[in-house]
């Protein structure tokens, strides 16, 4: 049962129980119930808006990183913390790729802070010396 339905049910039951009370008392109870309902609606709206903003920020950063040629074969995961902090995780093949991913995230509209959890893992064949 949703919060709004619970508030309405409490309102109706409270109203029925107070039918013998003075109209002023009934009006006060109605006002309090409507205030609680309004608060619940506002809280729900803020939660929904925050989720959409976080999702939008993640999508913006993802599209910049995903379509950057210098990062096309890299594994970068993007997570949003709070409303404006982006966490980059995963493995990249070079310091240049790591710096490019951080730069792209940092320069994205809405990003205030970038948390770098990227690891540089060179390709296996780059570590082997060739004669």
Please tell me about this protein's structure.
The structure is a single chain. This protein has a single domain, classed as Histidine-containing Protein, Chain: A, CATH 3.30.1340.30. Helix content is 57%, strand content 18%. The longest helix is centred in the middle third of the chain and has 44 residues. The mean pLDDT is 82.
Supply database-style keywords.
alpha+beta, 3-stranded mixed β-sheet, Histidine-containing Protein, Chain: A, 131 residues
Write the layout of secondary structure elements.
Elements: H1 3-17, H2 23-66, E1 75-81, E2 85-92, H3 95-106, E3 113-120, H4 124-127
Parallel strand pairs: 2-3
Antiparallel strand pairs: 1-2
Helix pairs in contact: 1-2
| Major beta sheet summary | 3 strands, mixed
Helix content: 55-70%
Q: What is the total tally of β strands?
A: 3
Give me the secondary-structure category.
alpha+beta
Can you tell me the number of structural domains? 1
- CATH C-level class is Alpha Beta
Shape: rod-shaped
